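Issue 218. Parser rejects a valid record. Input:
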Amino acid sequence: MFRAFFNVFRVADLRKKVGFTLLMLCVYRVGFYVPLPGVDQDALTKHWQTGGGGGASEQMAEMFAMFTGGDLGQSTLFGLGIMPYISASIIFQLLVTVVPALEKLQKEGDSGRRKIMEYTRYATVGLCFIQALFWVKYLSGAGLIYPEFRGGFAFSAVAITGLMAGTVLLMWIGEQIDEYGIGNGISLIIMAGIISRLPYVILEVVNGLIASIGGGGQSSIMTPEKIVFLLCSFVGVVAASILITQAQRRIKIQQAKQTRGRRIVGGSQHYLPLRVNHGGVMPIIFASSLLLFPGMLFGQLVKWDLPLAGMWFFLQEIFRPGAFIYNLAYALMVYFFAYFWVSVQFQPKELANNLRDMGSFIPGLRPGKRTADYLESVMTRITYVGAGFLAVIALIPSVVAIHFQIPFRISAFLGGTGLLIVVSVTLDLIQRIEANLIMRNYEGFLGTEGVGRVKGRQY
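Output the parser choked on:
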């Protein structure tokens, strides 16, 4: 492994790609700490920590930072992160399957995909403007702006422009990494935002351990037993995440034999891999995003002292992160979005037609509809297993935080969206680096003999 690491710097082209990627990520981290003018950052941090945005406000800020590369806790140039671009990409991925014009454009090859990417950029700017507008209005309404800037059009214009420019710059950085660096740019930006929180978590654990040794009586103190539990749980969850990320259901494919003159060609066997976790982290992202709103909504209704206040308080409590109803709804929504994502992305009829056109078939099944039905049934069964794993890993952070009295900032690294993104992007990055090394006759990270290659997936 160390030899492969040094081999990366022996290949000039690969060394330039890695260096360029690191440089772009450094630019992202610098812009992450450039504050918006006029915003009281200290007051904003206290606002989220004291639950100013509702019962789930702090956890919403943590989750937002986990999969956007931004941070609601500090309103900076990259405060919105890359979320508008991700949202626009998801919207167009869904529209391609239902809008015939976009579907035709997708099938035109590189030119069509470039056109769809152009539409995605325009949609990103529009979504970014809407989100920045709401965010600036929220800051003004909550009194988180310095008095001399309140109520002024100049502040709103500067803040909205700054947030939009930050997101567009992040989108540009991601595209530059795709073209001149190594790895998927957007995924690497998100992973960098997640990993950057790790030193603060380690410092919090160390401070908790020191407080425990000092004999403090706080329930959230990190005792040695809790630290051992966290370490063992982290290793186990990471291993399970790697296993489920790479897990495949391989279906045997037989190529039809053809006679050409006196020769018989074809007849070879190969496999069609179907991913167990076909949706990746998208089901968790959708489910966690939607479940944040009920707690915030009912929390605001309680503050407004409306009629039936007891009912609003009860609904706020059952939709609080960690409550039984919340966890049950979370698991059910992860299952729903897992099947929904598979139904949108996986097209068994098109796959069956491609196999037929290539002269291949599944042994024992007729090409066409029978093959499509079989592929759909297999994907339905393995999606049930993949969605179950996603539901478990999504609930681990909140369950550990509630039952073991561990801060959510620490337990968030035991599962959920952040861990899956880090594992998936790391596997994909290792695969790309290893492919470059092997192409130039250098030993990869897993050696050259007797070991299968890492097959990661891209977020």
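Fixed in the parser; the record now loads. Residues 221-414 form a domain with the Preprotein translocase SecY subunit fold (CATH 1.10.3370.10).
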